[in-house]
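Hi R.,

Here's the chain you asked about this morning:
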Amino acid sequence: MWHTSQYVNASGATNSYTKARRILIASQINWIAVDGLKQAAELKAKIRYAHREAEVMVTPLDKERLHVEFKLPQMAIAPGQTIVFYDGDTVVGGGIIEKKGENKIWAE
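And the predicted structure, written out as tokens:
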């Protein structure tokens, strides 16, 4: 089941700076610990150096792009930033955030 969620700041305003996002498209993927993904995988990801690791479902769209869905909404997803994927303490790979997507909730 999918739900749409929207976040607002204390004043009730919604804009691109106050919305948390669940979905992004990453490109320019550099795989480190694997040869690439052939199917969806549950990993952890960081979108900023000081950002906490967060659970994600990573699905390959083609050889160059990934659909990334966070289990919980994340603040400050912005095109041009890097995203790094982890499996435990192992860096699996990373890429560049191409665009942010809709706020759908991960189906469990």
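The mean pLDDT is 83.

Let me know if you need anything else.
M.
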